[in-house]
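Journal club side-thread
Mid-discussion, someone asked how the predicted structure for our own chain would compare to the paper's figures. Pasting it here so we can look after the session.
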Amino acid sequence: MMELTREKNKLESWMSVKITGISLPVYLILLLVLILALSVDKLPHNILGALAVLVLLGNLFHFLGTKIPIVKTYLGGGAVFCIFASAAIATFHILPDSAVDLTKDFVNHMGFLDFYIAALITGSILGMNRDLLVKAAVRFIPVALLSMVSCFFAVGLVGMLLGNGFKDSVMYVAFPAMAGGIGAGVVPLSSIYAGSLHTSSAAVISRLIPASALCNVLAIIFAAMTSKIGENFPKQNGHGILMKIDVDLNQPAPKLDIAKMGVGLALSIAFFLSGSILNYFVPKVHAYAFMIIVVFICKAFNFIPSYYQESAVMFNQLIVKNLTAAVLAAIGIALLNLNVLAQALTWQFVVLCVVSVTVISVAAGLFGKLFGLYPVESMITAGMCNNSMGGTGNVAVLSASNRMELIAFAQMGNRLGGAIILILSGILIQLFMI
C-alpha cells in the first residue's frame, strides 16, 4: 500500500512540473509534434516554423538550466545553458540543417532580434523613473568610457608580457571585444583593418570573431557569478536599479489590458523606425543608438502621456516573459559556432579575453562607485555588456544576471562605446603601420 502511495506521489509530482506554464506531459507532446515536423521536412520556412523551434527548444533548455546543479547556481542557470545547449545542437548537427538555416534567416534577415530589442528598449526607458533615468545616464556614460580605456591598456600590456605584443593584443582582442557585436562592430572593424593592411575583410574577420565570441561567453558567465556574489553585499547591489535615488520606485503595476499591449507594439515599432530614419541620415551611428536617444528625450521631457507609457511597459513585459528563452536559443543557434570558438583557444588568447572581461568589469565597478552608481549594476552594464556581442549579447548578459530592466543603459554604453572604438581603430591602425 505504501509502495502504491509513493508511486502515486511520484506520478503527481511529475504531472505537476510545468515548463513556461505548460504541464510536462503536454510539453512533451508539443516537442513530439516539432520532431515529427522536422523528420518529414514539413517545418515551414517562415516565422511560424522559426518560432516553433525557438520557443519549444528555448524554453526546454532554459528550464533544464534552472535545475542542473552548479549550472543553476554558478554558471548562469537557464540563460547560459539555453545559449550553449542551442549552440551545441546546431554546431554538431543534432538539429537538422534546414532548421538551423531557418533560424539564421529569422535572426539575420527577418528582424526577430530587432523586434525583441525594440520592445525591450521602449518599455524599459518609458517604464523607468524619469529622475532616475536622467541622473543615472549622466553618470553612466563616463563610467562606461573610462572602463573601456582601462580595458584597452590592460589587454595591451598583458599582451606584451605574454609575448603577443601590444598592437596585436588590442587590435585582435580588445577592439573586437568592445566594438559592439558582429554586424555593427566586427564587420566594419574588419573593413577598417583591411583597408590599412591591404588585404580582404574576409581574411581579417576570422581573427576578430573569436575574441568577440569568447568575451561574450565570459561576460555572460561573469554576469551570472557577479549577480550571485552581489547578493552577499546588499549595500553594493541595486537589484536592477543603477543608482540610489530618493523617490519611491515601487510603482503599482498597470492593470492588464489587451488593447494596451497592441498600443505598446505600435509605439515600439514607431520608435524603432525613428531610429532607422535617423540612421539613414547618419549611417555611422547605429539605429539602436538613435532609438535610445529618441525614447530618452521623450521620457526626459514628458512628451509621452502616461497611457502610452503604460502600454509600452505592458508590451515589454509580454515580450520578455514569453520570448526571452526563444531569443537566447536564437543566439546560440544562429550566432555562436562552437567550432570557430574552439579553433582560436590558445592559452594566450584565452588569458587576454579573461583579462579584457575582468578588467572592464572591475573598472566599471570602481568607477561606478566613484560616480554614485551601484557597483554590481555598474559592473554588469558598463563592464560586461561592453564586452558582449551587441544587442544580442546584452540580452544574454542581462538575462543571466536577472537585470533585463537595464537594457537601455547596456545599449547606450554598447553603441556609444562601439562607435568610439571604430573611430579610434581607424586612427591607431595608421599609427601601428608606421
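Post-session note: The chain has two domains: 17-109, 110-433.
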